[in-house]
Amino acid sequence: MQVVAGATTGTGNGLGAMPGKMRLTEPYVRMIARNAYFWAWPMVNAYNRRVAVGHVPEPGLAGGMMPIAPPNRLAMLSDYVDPTERLVACPNQDVVYGGGIAALDQSPVVIQIPDFGKRFWVFQVVNLRTDSIASLGAMYGTKPGFYLLAGPDWHGEVPKGITAVLRSDTQTAFVVPRIFLDDTPADHAAVQSAITGIDMYPLASYDGVMKHRDWSQLRRYPAVPRSGDDPGEKRWVFPEKFFDELPAVLRDAPARPSEEARYAEILSVIAATRNDPALRSAMVDEAQRAQTELVDPLLQFRNFGIPLAGNWTTQNDGARFGTQYFMRTAVARSSIFVNKPEETRYFSLDLDAAGTRLDGAKRYTVTFAKGQLPPVRGFWSLTMYDQYHFFVPNALGRYALGTRNLDLKPNADGSLTLYIQADEPSDPAQRANWLPAPAGQPFSLMLRAYWPEQAIASGEWTPPPVVVAR
Asked: What is the pTM of this model?
């Protein structure tokens, strides 16, 4: 029997029914809606980012600060990300970012990877589920060349000169290059030639010749519209639209074997309530509740992840979530598009060593013992965020400390102390190690370890505690 619901008249019993069709109760519809909203939230978030670039005519910068490109093209920054951006939470100022969205139902794409020499680099390629679908980077020994990214239904001929073929199991994929940049005038100049060969374009544009572009000369677009005066990340998921958008999202990301029953159940309820305003209203209401009660709290790092000493948390399976749906949604809400653990290990912190919320009204220190800096083959950094996971402008224009800062001053015993506070340290010698905090506001920290050594992967090394300064 087909499971549908229709409008009822005068029953007042919370049931939807049509002659010859099965009734659905409102509590059942709410249960399915709540579960579906939480489970599919990352996919709807990602899909709506694709929708947002559909009108863009050519690669450029949104608001003059973030790379944006039409589907199947890519745009690159030529410097660190602008500190006022609000399109992607938890940015860093260690790399030159790029970004492109592949609409693989339209065409496969060719990803150009130039020779970066000894410079650290990684290209993140993830599907609509935000799971990684490729391994491209310094840590893999990836060769320069042309890489073909194709969707699940493409069976065309691979042209001569393609280095490797990458496959996405969803029709939408995201390509995010990250190229390390030292914070020196010399490296700011040197990185320009390193990034000029980065590109992505439809297969029809491939001719076997490496294309080059000066990414410092990009068209400027207006900022992507935001919702009201929300200080956090631009909203990509709207409860009131969610169930109208979800069928297209699920077509883009076909069910995996373990998800077939889930897909069928969700789609049957959406179809059944399409002509029942009361039950459709209940679905939207439940989505709004799920956003407030389930999703929004996951912006805070302390509410998810693997707990470590000093109230740090981490994750072992970023970008390969599989059926870890809680972690997938938590990461999408707090810091979407993370790298795989062998590419980057993330350590996050909301609370000091005593368990008190980090606050710009206090002064803190974090000390790495001699020989105990994050063990990496790439680089490491400690980044400052406000409570919404964005930068807060400060007089130094400094939002992170780490490998890129060549003037960090160790202590006499070889240890390294970083000073985390809103006001400048009274000792001028500490200024190079000062990470400005937002005055009088809660804040969060993220330590990134790019290309981590085994000591990080095994859990032997974890970050030192952040303590209130004496």
From this structure: 0.93
